[in-house]
Amino acid sequence: xxxxxxxxxxxxxxxxxxxxxxxxxxxxxxxxxxxxxxxxxxxxxxxxxxxxxxxxxxxxxxxxxxxxxxxxxxxxxxxxxxxxxxxxxxxxxxxxxxxxxxxxxxxxxxxxxxxxxxxxxxxxxxxxxxxxxxxxxxxxxxxxxxxxxxxxxxxxxxxxxxxxxxxxxxxxxxxxxxxxxxxxxxxxxxxxxxxxxxxxxxxxxxxxxxxxxxxxxxxxxxxxxxxxxxxxxxxxxxxxxxxxxxxxx
Length: 249
Description:
The protein is of the alpha/beta class. It is 56% helix and 16% strand.
């Protein structure tokens, strides 16, 4: 589900969950656990990447449809907790986007301090509204932080972008050859880790604390979001999206 290795002082976290590294309850819980362990570890920085040709295809929509409202009410808080844990780490975090990073996969990448994407490897974006679901507070605030200038366009169109397009719009910091992706991400993490840790941590906290505050203030909205996801109308919309775009093979 998650492979955690290290290259010297840099921890490498690789998502290995099915063909598409989709986000479900168990993966989100495992991710939060591993991130908390990293927070307490001696590792100086973290690189997050996927496996195969996909970074993460986002929420496991089929499971949402199959298990319905009870699952939604457990899953959404777990997903938000994993995103917030990653975003709030005060050590350097680099995302090595090896392929498609869709919806929740895009949010995971956006939570990092520095983002690299493999050239011609896939697309990245947040098509939640095309699916028919509203954004929980945590992922929306992370996207506001990472791509404020283009947030409305990203949200309302739901368009996904190539690596080069994502770099042009500031969603990705660098595009690299796929075979060099992890090495380049490790090098970027080492560069950030070379900054005196206290100075880095305090500066990162200054940059991100307003976002965390907005997340906590807006937590009441998540009850409305959760109710919306769990509603019959939304579940029907998700089912329709799955049938149109994610046909079973």
